[in-house]
Request: fold
Amino acid sequence: MARGWTGWQGWQGQTVRVAPSALLRRHWQGLRQGAALPRRDRILPRSIAAMLDHAIMVERRYDGAVLLRYAGMAVNAVHGQDLTGRPLSALFETGMRDRLLAALEMGFSGQRTLDLQLSSERGLTRPLLTARMTLLPLAPVGMEGVTLIGCLDLDGPPILPPRRFRIDRVLGEPLGAEPPETQAAAGSAPDAAAPTVRRGGPPVLVWSGA
Reply:
């Protein structure tokens, strides 16, 4: 499992005591008003400056394409080039596409936060690289759909990029997002821009390659 605190800053000799994913989740949770998901326009870069190198912003376009709207320096280092505007699948082995999209669907629905345990195979000159990708849903703004903000914790430098990951395990923390029609049936006015979330539960195993 990736330790996170050994990420990009750690490679450069800086002391990092908290995993980037923990910093992001703390900020995301602090922006929630009651059970509602945080709005995307309330994510302030200066508030997560300590983990921006590991941050990603994932959006699904109307044609179904899942793109990286933002990719931090440590994420780009895995691929060896700027990934902003590229498909999220560029970080994964070709055979992982269906598994990745199935996991993302739970995030885009606003019903789960996701933690993907990842690994990139070792080679003659490449050490094994493990990582953890955290994805947190954000409430849509206006006509835009649900966006995921995320983080890639790496367990070491991505030697000889591009490195591509396989998905070893997916954990999901249920949020229990209520669809607008359910809210309306309960007598409350639906608000597509700010979906509410029922009481969730502890993370559960969604998929494992073991």
Observations:
- Helices lie at 8-11, 20-31, 73-79, 97-108, 180-185.
